[in-house]
Every structure is written in C-alpha cells, then in structure tokens.
Write a structure and sequence with these properties.
Length: 138
C-alpha cells in the first residue's frame, strides 16, 4: 500500500468494519453511508488511485468478483437491481483516492435516480466519436 487513507487503515484492521469478502488482492466491506442497506465497497488491497492506476492483472480479476458480489447481494437482499460504480478523479466524484467499486442494491421505488443525460448538439456526436477513436488508435 503506497498511500495512507481510510481504506488502507481498514485493510490493516486499524478501523473496524463489516468485511463481506477478502482474498490476497481484494477486500469487500459494507459502506458506512449506504445508498441502501447492503451497499458494498470492493477495493484492491494495494492502494491504486483509481482505474487509471490499476494494473491489467488486477482489472482482470475485478470483473468476475464484481459479478459474484452483485449476484450474492441481489439474492441475499432480494434486490430488484444493482448499480455498480467507480468514481475516477475529483471531477467524477472521487473523494477517497484509493480505487473502490460501489455495488449498490436497488429497489423499486427507493427514490434514487440516475444522472440525467442531454442531447448532443449538431455534429458534436461525430466529433466526439472521432476524438475517442483517435485516442484508442494510439
């Protein structure tokens, strides 16, 4: 762990929490400020800042683990659905700079809404796609 933050302290057992899952690379805990009860935080034990710092081998492991956590959460809580989120950088809402995935159980009528979209301006969609494709081809 290369950064001191609340998650590194939890991983070292310096701060008590409800651990849902743990292996050599990851720990899953209950969020102390849940969207709904059962909101899980899945984090690598190594303190990567966000997805941009996470190595490929960790990213390959996280996908199946997210699915396993989401399925268990949905079944155990009889949730109607599940949101999975990862905030990357301050502008995207990242507050703790230790990568962590939110696995949030959702229920019909729970009152939460997703972000609102907006229409592209004329020509904006094509220009945006071109920029992203150019970045991908580097």
């Amino acid at each position: 762990m290369n950064e001191e933050n609340i998650f590194t302290k939890i991983i070292r057992r310096e701060i008590p929490t409800e651990i849902i899952y743990e292996d050599d690379d990851f720990m899953a805990i209950l969020d102390i400020l849940p969207v709904n009860p059962g909101h899980i935080l899945l984090m690598p034990k190594h303190s990567y800042k966000n997805i941009f710092d996470m190595p490929e081998d960790i990213l390959k492991k996280v996908g199946p683990l997210l699915k396993t956590m989401a399925l268990a959460q949905k079944e155990a809580l009889e949730a109607d659905g599940v949101n999975i989120g990862l905030n990357n950088e301050k502008a995207a809402g990242q507050v703790i700079f230790h990568a962590h995935f939110h696995i949030m159980p959702r229920f019909e009528g729970d009152g939460y809404k997703l972000w609102e979209g907006r229409q592209y301006k004329t020509g904006e969609m094509k220009k945006t796609a071109e920029k992203i494709r150019a970045a991908l081809s580097k």
